[in-house]
């Protein structure tokens, strides 16, 4: 007799003997099962937004009634949220959040959709032998459809990743490596996100050549520069869709048309066209077919989804060939091995579903808040420069304040959560490389602020921000000797400063 059998039997017996107590303990859940009524786990008052702007919101998808002070949720004490009338602007003690390019708050509808996959539906989506696996797989399949629908793709072309950083690495390095014997040249721009620039820099150390296209003073690339940079051995052109610091929207269709025309004319293979669309997907219409995009990077936490999840669009027809960076179980078409994190992916899918449905409404609201911010500041403070093309994404407003010292400006605005330059580079006080690429003067790059407006930003918040900016800039300028000279009519650009 197998010596292990009695042990097994006694284990089974003791479970059964434990009876109802055992079952009770095993079934206890830390998080109560989800229901639409629980979609209120947020500091951000969706209820407030719905009341202000009922628009297209689905009835019953949101909570009604505010979260009272100290109310408990899932065993945690919640901080008091925005009051009924004041929105977040009156939230107690927390800065107003205007840093939507760094990350967005998760939409409560997304959390609501994720919760069952964090509690009861915990199966591995790759388990084929039981219902736990099937239900997780079906959640992942549905999410894949939502992501694909949002960007006009075939769902089979969507690969789930941990975010846009991973997607960018996977696509750029993967394509370069696959084609390394014959095509060792890549083209990108000087204003890409660090994860694109650093992937390219890594490839340079491996013997690849990279052309970094400059940008025009408004942040757009020149199509002529692109044409001039193309070579018979160019395997990839990677140009971002929306810039994370200045909101500039690159002409994606024109870029892909240029690549096709060049390939036809020169009889060279068409370089693949990749776009980092972390700041674009869900915010402006993106259609991979209509725009001729071969590969694209998507991030969950920029579109009110969870952090730690994203996607790569990798076209299958005609096929984009790339070498996988991660090896293992062969999940995600073998391009990204590892168990697909069903709860996160379901969250990303829901974020995409909502974005597809509400993009127009979001865009219109954000545009109106953006105009309100710019006009509010401009009408009361002079010598402000808007960095980047004014027709860019309205939720990203980058302003430079002349005659104001950048660090003092940030220090004085502690009650507003915003960035100077990109979130990733603002830890150092170096002026942003993106603003420098536009040709912005060093001092103007230093005194720039990025205002990131999003789905849950309210008019009350914008008004409060305008009030604070006007008062802080006026106060700092009053202390500035340079500003005094400007007021006296001295052209300080003509001053010859003595060197000591
Ligand atoms: C344009 C752009 N690309 C890539 C990323 C990285 O995204 P993730 O945080 O999903 O890795 C960001 C985030 O800041 C971004 O703004």
UniProtKB/TrEMBL annotation:
It catalyses: (sulfur carrier)-H + L-cysteine = (sulfur carrier)-SH + L-alanine. Residues 50-69 are annotated as: Disordered. GO terms for biological process: [2Fe-2S] cluster assembly; tRNA thio-modification; tRNA wobble uridine modification. Its EC number is 2.8.1.7. Residues 96-464 form the Aminotransferase class V domain. Keywords: Iron, Iron-sulfur, Metal-binding, Pyridoxal phosphate, Transferase. GO terms for molecular function: cysteine desulfurase activity; iron-sulfur cluster binding; metal ion binding; pyridoxal phosphate binding. It is an enzyme of class 2 (transferase). Its cofactor is pyridoxal 5'-phosphate. The keyword Metal-binding applies. It comes from the Eukaryota. The keyword Repeat does not apply. HAMAP family: Cys_desulf_IscS. Belongs to the class-V pyridoxal-phosphate-dependent aminotransferase family. NifS/IscS subfamily. Catalyzes the removal of elemental sulfur from cysteine to produce alanine. It supplies the inorganic sulfur for iron-sulfur (Fe-S) clusters. Plays a role in both tRNA-processing and mitochondrial metabolism. Involved in the 2-thio-modification of both 5-carboxymethylaminomethyl-2-thiouridine in mitochondrial tRNAs and 5-methoxycarbonylmethyl-2-thiouridine (mcm5s2U) in cytoplasmic tRNAs. PANTHER family: CYSTEINE DESULFURASE (PTHR11601:SF34), CYSTEINE DESULFURYLASE FAMILY MEMBER (PTHR11601). This is cysteine desulfurase. It comes from Papiliotrema laurentii.
């Amino acid at each position: 007799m197998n010596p292990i059998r009695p042990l097994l039997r006694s284990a089974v017996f003791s479970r059964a003997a434990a009876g109802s107590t055992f079952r009770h303990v095993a079934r206890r859940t830390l998080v109560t099962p989800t229901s639409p009524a629980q979609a209120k786990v947020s500091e951000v008052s969706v209820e407030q937004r719905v009341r202000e702007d009922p628009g297209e919101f689905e009835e019953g998808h949101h909570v009604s009634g505010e979260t009272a002070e100290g109310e408990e949720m899932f065993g945690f004490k919640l901080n008091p949220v925005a009051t009924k009338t004041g929105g977040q602007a009156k939230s107690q003690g927390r800065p107003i959040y205007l840093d939507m390019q760094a990350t967005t708050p998760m939409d409560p509808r997304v959390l609501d959709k994720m919760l069952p996959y964090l509690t009861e539906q915990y199966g591995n989506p790759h388990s084929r032998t039981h219902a736990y696996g099937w239900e997780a797989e079906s959640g992942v399949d549905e999410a894949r459809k939502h992501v694909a629908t949002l960007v006009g793709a075939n769902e089979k072309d969507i690969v789930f990743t941990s975010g846009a950083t991973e997607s960018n690495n996977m696509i750029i390095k993967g394509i370069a490596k696959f084609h390394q014997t014959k095509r060792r040249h890549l083209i990108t721009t000087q204003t890409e996100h660090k994860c694109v620039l650093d992937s390219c820099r890594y490839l340079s150390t491996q013997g690849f050549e990279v052309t970094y296209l400059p940008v025009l003073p408004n942040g757009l690339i020149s199509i002529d520069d692109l044409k001039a940079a193309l070579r018979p051995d160019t395997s990839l052109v990677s140009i971002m869709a929306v810039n994370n610091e200045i909101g500039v929207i690159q002409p994606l269709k024109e870029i892909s048309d240029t690549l096709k025309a060049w390939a036809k004319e020169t009889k060279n293979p068409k370089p693949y066209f990749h776009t980092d669309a972390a700041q674009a997907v869900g915010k402006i219409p993106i259609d991979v077919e209509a725009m001729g995009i071969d590969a694209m990077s998507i991030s969950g936490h920029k579109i009110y989804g969870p952090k730690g999840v994203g996607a790569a669009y990798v076209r299958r027809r005609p096929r984009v060939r790339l070498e996988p960076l991660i090896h293992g179980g062969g999940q995600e078409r073998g391009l990204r091995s590892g168990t697909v994190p069903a709860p996160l992916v379901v969250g990303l899918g829901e974020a995409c579903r909502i974005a597809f449905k509400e993009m127009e409404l979001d865009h219109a609201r954000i545009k109106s808040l953006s105009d309100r911010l710019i006009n509010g500041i401009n009408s009361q403070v002079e010598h402000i420069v808007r960095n980047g093309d004014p027709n860019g994404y309205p939720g990203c407003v980058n302003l430079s304040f002349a005659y104001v010292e950048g660090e003092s400006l940030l220090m004085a605005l502690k009650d507003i959560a915003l960035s100077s330059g990109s979130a990733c580079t603002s830890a150092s006080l170096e002026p942003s490389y993106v603003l420098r690429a536009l040709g912005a003067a060093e001092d103007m790059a230093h005194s720039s602020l990025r205002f990131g407006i999003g789905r849950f930003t309210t008019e009350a918040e914008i008004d409060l921000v305008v009030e604070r900016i006007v008062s802080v800039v006026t106060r700092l300028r009053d202390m500035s000797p340079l500003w005094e000279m400007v007021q006296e009519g001295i052209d300080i650009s003509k001053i010859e400063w003595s060197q000591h």
